[in-house]
Amino acid sequence: MAVMMQAFYWDSPIKEQKEGEWWNFVAEKAPELGKAGINALWLPPICKGAEARSPGYDPYDYFDLGDFDQKGAVKTLYGNRAELENLIKTLRENNMNAYADMVINHNSGADEEEVNPIDGQKRWTKFNPKSGRFPRDWNCFHPSRYERVMIEGENFAGFPHLCHRNPRVYTAMFEYGRMVIEELGFDGFRFDFAKGFGAWMIGLLAKYRYERDGKEFTPFVVGEYWSGPDGIGNWLDEVRAVTDNQIAAFDFPLRYKLKDLCDTLQYDLRNLTSDGSVVANRPFNAVTFVENHDMGGNEIVNDKNLAYSFILMNEGYPCIFWYDYYNLGLARPGTPNGIDALIDAHHKYADGEACILHADPDLYILQRSGMDGRPGCIYVLNNLGDKWSGTSVKTQWKNQKFRPVAWDGHDIAHPDERTTDPEGNAEFPAPPRGYAVYAPVFE
């Protein structure tokens, strides 16, 4: 049961006064993150964008990782290639993987305008990158000679939109992916704006026979397909039709439920039991999250650790947000009341089948059955704002003692230990507007 962290937020190097030094800054944090139980870091886009302080979501030169003087700077906002390679090496030394943010559908910062002869429109599509790799012109973008109509998906912010059916583009994307995995040592891909290009492209990049240390290597792959459950499900099916590799999607439908949980007065916890999320329908394909860099203006405001408790005690691959962990101080190391305690409980206990034992508008109780040496646990979520709440539930454990291992809420008094009766029944309470995780004690 792994835990991922998005190791940046929007303009994080600028706001933290680490311009050009973000790779070094994250490397300094690697030992403590590894010790906290983070298994992988999702890193921001690595290549040179359209201008010096670009966060990277407007690629100009895919093969300039901060070593060519162009677009107003030598380094990217995050650093250079040597610093990136050192970061990945440091992550490996601290038992963490690295996932690369792949922005492969739109470009920006072109050097010249040119007329596209197919429709007669003038666009900024002439690119002459100083790396000397992947120069491109109008025929690398839509509309292109390689398709009669644009069939690859949505456009983004009016940027030139790559046509992957052009063999030149297709080859460059494979060269880029190969560099990311084989040369730099990344362990997986996060595909940005997956609505913008064919699912077949992700499938083919996922199934390419990458090599690492003389052996075939299969990367982890997750896509940002910002849609409802049906749209994400259809996209996963489309990718699966092209590759046998396991592909994941960020669970946007669950994230909006979690925002309602935290920010909506008298939210009905039974909404958490219904379908309508990736993790509910396809738990092995779900990357669950509470916040990310694109949620500006739609952030969760209240009691955010309620949401973190839900993703870390449930199925799916949970992703922690750097800003929440560090800048908002929600890690709370050394206490049972923060993300660190939840990560520890996730690794030690939260495995096996997830079974909802009770759900009403104000109380939600989940059982994780345990698997592979992790004994399972009981997770309680209380939506009442003024009192502790719990109810008797029938668990799989008979005559079993439980101790609280993580909890938080508007009252953080230490919950009592609990013991089930001969039929497996016991009452498990949680603090007001809070949660509690109870783990079996074997003596």
From TrEMBL:
Q: Binding of Ca(2+) 1: at which residues?
A: 105
Q: Which Gene3D superfamilies match?
A: Glycosidases, Golgi alpha-mannosidase II
The residues that hold Ca(2+) 3 are: 362
Indicate yes or no for the key word Hydrolase. Answer: yes
Active site positions: 192 (nucleophile), 224 (proton donor)
Q: Where is the composition biased (Basic and acidic residues)?
A: 410-421
| Cofactor(s) required, per the database record | Ca(2+)
Q: Name one Pfam family in it.
A: Alpha-amylase
Region described as Disordered: spans on this chain: 410-431
Q: Which SUPFAM superfamilies does the UniProt entry name for this protein?
A: (Trans)glycosidases (SSF51445)
Q: Which residues form a coiled coil?
A: 74-101
Q: Which BP terms does GO give this entry?
A: carbohydrate metabolic process
Any idea where the Glycosyl hydrolase family 13 catalytic domain is?
2-346
The GO terms this record gives for MF are: alpha-amylase activity; calcium ion binding
Which keywords label this protein?
Answer: Calcium, Carbohydrate metabolism, Coiled coil, Glycosidase, Hydrolase, Metal-binding
Report which superkingdom the organism of origin falls in.
Bacteria
By its UniProt entry, which PANTHER family does this protein fall under?
Answer: ALPHA-AMYLASE
Q: What family does this chain come from, according to its entry?
A: Belongs to the glycosyl hydrolase 13 family.
State the protein's name: Alpha-amylase
Which organism was this protein described from? Answer: Edaphobacter modestus
